[in-house]
Design goal:
Elements: E1 4-8, E2 19-22, H1 33-36, E3 40-41, H2 49-55, H3 62-74, H4 77-89, E4 95-99, H5 108-119
Parallel strand pairs: 1-4, 2-3, 2-4
Helix pairs in contact: 2-3, 3-5
């Protein structure tokens, strides 16, 4: 069984990452494309710019941010297609969602991973 993982962009790629997908709207600062070893850049499933600015990576906003981001995902047909593609990839390899946020416990990657898990068979 293969895994859907999340990982900061600033951590070195490892073989166990499998297929690496950047899930940020902007490229992480200070990381070259070669060093990042990204297989896909999924801008279409990131939080909207308005939501991202409102959240501001403030932990006190996280619960409401999570609710609003899940609502954006639910209303985004590309998100369902993305979840289907992840499901397909997981039949042959691990998939790692790569994000740039500093906080490993309060970021959109956690919400997206959980949303995907709930939307794949």
């Amino acid at each position: 069984m293969y895994e859907l993982k999340i990982k900061r962009a600033y951590l070195s790629p490892v073989v166990g990452d499998g297929y690496r997908i950047l899930i940020d709207k902007l490229w992480p600062r200070g990381i070259s494309k070669e060093k990042a070893e990204i297989d896909e850049w999924a801008k279409s499933i990131t939080p909207s710019a308005e939501l991202r600015r409102w959240f501001g990576h403030k932990e006190e906003n996280y619960a409401e941010f999570a609710r609003k981001y899940r609502a954006e995902l639910d209303g985004n047909p590309l998100a369902s297609q993305f979840a289907d593609a992840i499901s397909e990839l997981l039949t042959t390899t691990n998939v790692t969602l790569i994000y740039g946020a500093k906080n490993e416990h309060c970021n959109h990657a956690i919400i997206l991973r959980d949303w995907i898990v709930n939307h794949i068979p």
